[in-house]
Amino acid sequence: MFWRKKLSIGYYGRLAAASALHLLGVAVIFCLFGWWILPGEAHPAIAQAYSLGVFSEHPQEVLLHAGISACLWALLFIAWKLLTTASEEKTPRLVRARGTVIVETIIVFPVFLLITLGLVQLALLNTAGFLTTLGAFKAGRVVAIWYPEALEGRNGVDLALVEEKARLAAASSVAPVAPADFVFSAGDCAASDSLDAKLEALGDLGHDTSPASAYGQATPENLSLATAFDQSDFATRGQTKLLFAHCATTVEYVVSGHEVLTRIQYQQQIAMPVVSLVFGEPATVAGRQGFYATIERDHRTTHQIVPMDEPPGGSTF
Predict the structure, then answer these.
(1) CA 217, 289, 190, 166 torsion: positive or negative?
(2) How far is Cα 301 from Cα 143, in angstroms, rounded to an integer?
(3) Which pTM does this prediction carry?
């Protein structure tokens, strides 16, 4: 009876240690994966939005990120077990027929490829979801600040300018995941004085603001895993990312009393081949054909008080 109890304690102890190891592995990948895939310039803004409870309105993004991290840890653990088992195995193995191996490879490889591409695309979409949530937060703050100015018509601000400023704030948030390495036609969707000022600022920071040209028109025929990620340097792709994000983003807001509801819609292109039909629908954005997934987010806040015509008590500042 004693040895059975001792065996039971040892078994559950090993089980608890293995569970703790797996949880630690998933937690490490969760942090590293999120920190790596999200752009560095977005980290402070995301931390601020998180502290204000913005992401609590969309818990599915965090849960999905945790699920992707768990899948990645599982793939790494399975690969490690297969490698260590093969190296430690000393008994001779039966040589299987070549035809059997080919058949098994034909069956398994497409499934493995589909899962891999789907997991990568899901990670990209989830990142776009994080940044769209951040974009809604930023756009909401812009509306909260500038809407009272538009009501009073101060400094030449009107409702159209408020919407454009909010759109540019949202586009700046999602620009890191916007495609860049294909020629596209922005047309009138990128016509904006606020956007021109933003591009001028990029030029002052050393970005290339000349008309971009890279790999030609993006179509389903020339999309591949190699071109799914931007290959140009950061200073070159900054302009095209912002322009495309601006064209792929729409903003609308509704004011009720002192509450402002800001809703943004962003169309993220599905970059991974094979899984395009699973995650997106055929569409054309800024003259760029492809498969797109539409991401919508909203943010509620209160706008600032309407500025007074005169200082309190008639005094001067």
Answers:
(1) negative
(2) 9
(3) 0.75
